[in-house]
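Quick illustration, no need to memorize.
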Amino acid sequence: MTEEREEKGRRLRILQIDERIRDETYPNATTLAKAFCVSRSTIVRDLDFLRDQYRAPIEYNSRKNGYYYTDPTFFIKSVMLSEGELLTLSAALPLLEQYRNTPIESSIKQLFTRLLTMLPAGVSIDPSFVGKNISFISDPLPQIEESVFTTVFHALRQHCTVTFLYRSLSSLEYRSHTADPYHIVCQKGSWYMLAFSREHHEVRMYALSRMKDAACTDSRFTIPEGFNPETYFDPSFGVWNTNEKPARIELLFDARINTLILERTWHESQELHQNEDGSVQLSFTSNQSEEILHWVLSFGSAVTVRNPPELAARVREEAARVAEKYRT
């Protein structure tokens, strides 16, 4: 913690030293040391850092007994990053993969480019560190039309009704829809619009990847007072379009995967308990039965649904359908 404070203090001091030199007041190591309440040797190291890392054209004027820039147009960039911060910046670049299907990808890349141009020429980090020693595995992402993405966000900001063609999960064709965008949700790289459907007179969830030909209309809307988007989805499990009331989910996991279950936070309301035989009980509350159904099935025979009975019945039915497909 002390080292971190010292590093921040050094970066701020260097910015101020740069400012004083540019003011042509010809400061020297002694006057700077007094001004910043540090030792003269500390200031000398700061000046060396300016020369080495920022290629500052610093010279000493013996007649004026102080330092100046031989190039009066020089100044150091205001963004100064430590080696650790540079590493974090470099390691974060592959995370752009989850935004590759949206206009946000180009915006973030522009932001990183601006940050990099503000760094001193002498500061660099080996790109092979990220390329060779860190791997990121992301889910396959659906493609979103750029016009759909920008139109929906514009409509959300301006509170204007949108028209669009939409293809539901099981449909073979697109159908016309009109809706008022209330909220945007991103779930693991997939983007959804939570909107009031003018056709169905209720709030529904629309996947942006299944929309096309989106357009704003002249009609304006007001989001109802007290509207809570999280009523319509579960931040821990998903955004399956549902009007279900939250239910208590109770699961029993076999001892063979107890570490996997115990080491993670599956839901913000979860309760975990390990039994004497090594099995683990997991309980939480959610209204996302469809998402939970597929999640439970991913554990195969290593999990048993204790509650609610409706979920247990659906798991049984789905398991039977799967078994039927493989009967010879």
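The longest helix spans residues 2-22.
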